[in-house]
Amino acid sequence: MMKIGICGAGGRMGREVCKAVLSEPAFELVCAVDPHYENQSLRELVFEAPEGLRIAARVEALVESGAEAMVDFSIAEAAKKNVPFALEHGIHCVVGTTGLSREDLESFEATALEHDVACLVAPNFAIGAVLMMHFASQAGRYLEGCEIVEMHHQAKIDAPSGTSRHTARMILEARGVDSWEEKDQGPRGLSMGGINLHSVRLPGLVAHQEVIFGGKGQTLIIRHDSFDRSSFMPGVILSLKKIAQHRGLVVGLQHILEL
Ligand SMILES: NC(=O)c1ccc[n+]([C@@H]2O[C@H](COP(=O)([O-])OP(=O)(O)OC[C@H]3O[C@@H](n4cnc5c(N)ncnc54)[C@H](O)[C@@H]3O)[C@@H](O)[C@H]2O)c1
Fold first, then answer.
1. What is the pLDDT along the chain (259 residues), one digit of tens a residue?
2. 156 included as an active-site residue
3. Cβ(98) to ligand 1 under 6 A?
4. Which of 3, 19, 134, 156 is catalytic?
């Protein structure tokens, strides 16, 4: 059984990861780290947790627990310290925390290589969303017209979403375009190299995106919906199962899916 630790275990994503890891026979949850819930029984937050597993405030607990891999869904400031610490101690890392800079990733890569472990950083663990981007990049080579409509809950601050921008980038790259202009076009959305991005914010929505292609006499719509946080868990579990096959830095779930 692979021993797993979770940083940010008390957070919304962290609790979901605890549940997912506990339901996998191949894994043993040995450590939960979250300073906000110091010394609290994990079972108070996650019903499925074994009795006696207490939440640690400090990342050092990972080493004491014998964790072989850790999952980090915390905050960028914490991940910047927790991830290198784990890598230095020979622990593979699966990182979902957003807001990390290019410099952070470069330093993760150097540390992971130095200590012969792997560090996966994925901005989106929903397998369906990663497939949507992959299929859209294929379709974009053949169908010229493209607009992206991303729809999220009203609390999401940034617009257009990182996923919609990334989708446009992948389509442009698949078309062989390596530099493009970004232009705010008001009601026609943000143009990224001619692909218009539109943002909808409404209560009731979670995370949804449609990539709409138009060609002569036809349209093609590729749509993905995340209805709740459980949508991210198959991607996290698959990443944990495959992480030991990698070394150094891996950015994006597409590499785990071998797309
Ligand atoms: N990659 C993806 O697919 C994906 C999906 C959803 C969310 N996210 C990202 O995951 C992160 C967490 O999201 P959330 O909604 O669970 O947030 P959250 O605020 O509910 O949880 C974050 C948790 O991290 C804890 N924390 C703070 N400092 C810590 C430290 N030093 N060590 C360990 N834990 C610490 C906090 O106490 C909190 O419980 C965010 O960066 C979010 O953007 C990524």
1. 999 999 999 999 999 999 999 999 999 999 999 999 999 999 999 999 999 999 999 999 999 999 999 999 999 999 999 999 999 999 999 999 988 999 999 999 999 999 999 999 998 999 999 999 999 999 999 999 999 999 999 988 889 998 999 999 999 999 999 999 999 999 999 999 999 999 999 999 999 999 999 999 999 999 999 999 999 999 999 999 999 999 999 999 999 999 9
2. yes
3. yes
4. 156
Q: For residue 203, what is the DSSP state? A: T
The active-site residue out of 92, 152, 198, 208 is 152
Total domains present in the chain? 2
Q: Whose CA is nearest to atom 37 of ligand 1?
A: 36
- 95: domain CATH number is 3.40.50.720
Domain limits for position 29: 2-121+230-255
Q: Say how far apart CA 136 and CA 213 lie, in whole Å.
A: 9
Q: Give the atom of ligand 1 at the shortest distance from the alpha carbon of 232.
A: 3
Pairwise CA distance, residues 218 & 193, whole Å: 22
Q: Is 152 a catalytic residue?
A: yes
Quick check: CB of 65 below 6 Å from ligand 1?
Answer: no
Residue 129: CB atoms within 10 Å: 24
List C-alpha distances in Å: 201 to 198, 208, 214. 10, 10, 24
